[in-house]
Amino acid sequence: MPRMSESLLEAHIRQYLAAQTGPEVVFTWQGGEPTLMGLDFFRRVVELQARHRKQGQRIENDLQTNGVLLDDEWCDFLKQHRFLVGLSIDGPAALHDAYRYSKGGKPTFDRVMAAVARLHKHDIRFNALCVVNRQNARRPIDVYRFLRDEVRPYIIQFIPAVERTNFNAVAPGYWNADELPLMGDTKAKPGQVDSIVTDWSVDPDDWGYFLTRIWDEWLKRDVGRIFVDQFENVISQLSGDGAQKCVSGQFCGKGLAIEHNGDVYSCDHFVYPEYRLGNIRKIHEGDMAFSERQKDFGLAKYKTLPKYCRACRYLSLCWGECPKNRFIKTPDGEPGLNYLCAGLKKFYGKVLLDYPRVRG
Ligand code: SF4
Ligand code: SF4
Q: Which of 64, 195, 222, 263 could form a disulfide with 86 if both were Cys (CB 3.0 to 4.6 A apart)?
């Protein structure tokens, strides 16, 4: 695994802290498997954060992990430094192991559940990050009850698996518009010979089915007791408190991504040369964060919305979701519609119908 050098790590932490204007600073460690960096790397991280922290800054570290390496020593450290752990787990054994296996090709479910037990033993607050793919999307209640009753995380996060077959070769937004399929076309679904998404990607209709089935169960018995980030997010929007998730916001641009070599990109989902802002050895992270290019990147989320979205009754909740997923055409042929649109409409339609009950 490529490692960030000591001097770059220190430069990143110093620049990142210096660029922050609010009292709360969140470092998110993700991409690949961050625990492979080893515990000493993270010991160094907290030392450097303490050294470069500005007066009054509160620092939070989020660690997104598959949990496989989390032993008691790791847990002691995470607890002591109040790391918020995001644990990847996609449902009960058969569903989790459908797509997640170790480098040696072995299933990982038992090891992840051992991490769950250890996190509870050490009383560490963790979130469950469940990637919703083509298979588990068809078993929403099994997935939800398993997470709620057996994993028992602080927050349940559902992340739709959406991956273009050519994602390695073409940067988001640089697709050939002529080749984008229309909404509803079989090419815009997984599992077809000519699909433009990988086999494990979630079907857009199933994404709507998954969220609405869970919403029903949650509404019946779990409101105020179980936190599902999609639901908290949409309720926050409807109550006038704004979106909590970037995908549901009107603009992008607040979360830069940094690679081990110091290269900085507009977003974690846009780590492509076309979206490289520079390198922290040459340009201060704060200058990149507030640069014109990054501002344009943020505004583009709204500016590039097709007419179909602008006229949509769910616009103020959806905002076209994440631009990395806008690779289909609207029914009247305009490119730039979100691949998940059919499912998003189904979910927001259901939420608007039920919202008076949530408000009580
Ligand atoms: S590109 Fe997607 S993930 Fe990145 S900030 Fe925008 S909505 Fe969020
Ligand atoms: S639901 Fe579909 S049409 Fe409406 S804003 Fe979202 S992506 Fe656009």
A: 64
pLDDT confidence tier of residue 359, bands split at 50, 70 and 90: confident
Instruction: Read off the tokens for 148.
Output: 């709620």
- pTM of the shown model: 0.94
Nearest-atom number in ligand 2 for the CA of 306 is: 8
Give the N- to C-terminal CA distance of the chain in Å, as an integer: 51
Has residue 245 got a pLDDT over 70? yes
- The rounded distance, in Å, linking the Cα atoms of 34 and 235 is 32
The ligand minimizing its distance to the Cα of 245 is 1
